[in-house]
Amino acid sequence: MKLITANRLSDGRVIYVGEDASVVEDIASAALFDGDAADAALIAAASRPATFVNPYLVEVTGHTPSGRDRLKETIRSAGPTVGNSLRHHETA
């Protein structure tokens, strides 16, 4: 199974294609696709450049990344990695 992820154009946040081509921010809410349906959904997301920046397919087991990029996708799904460290340095 696969899901589709990208970054949102307006704020750069990680987003996913949800049911009915909606935009969701939580990997657990992402729609799952297989075979030709995955390719068609990717084409549909790519046709929405005002929302999805560089969408691509991610291999998953359930909603957990399982392909060769599983570490990168697990980190992306957890949210920004720099926000907390920047706040710490600003107050120091």
UniProtKB/TrEMBL annotation:
Residues 64-92 are annotated as: Disordered. It comes from the Bacteria. Pfam families: DUF2849 (PF11011). Residues 66-75 have a biased composition (Basic and acidic residues). This is DUF2849 domain-containing protein. It comes from Brevundimonas goettingensis.
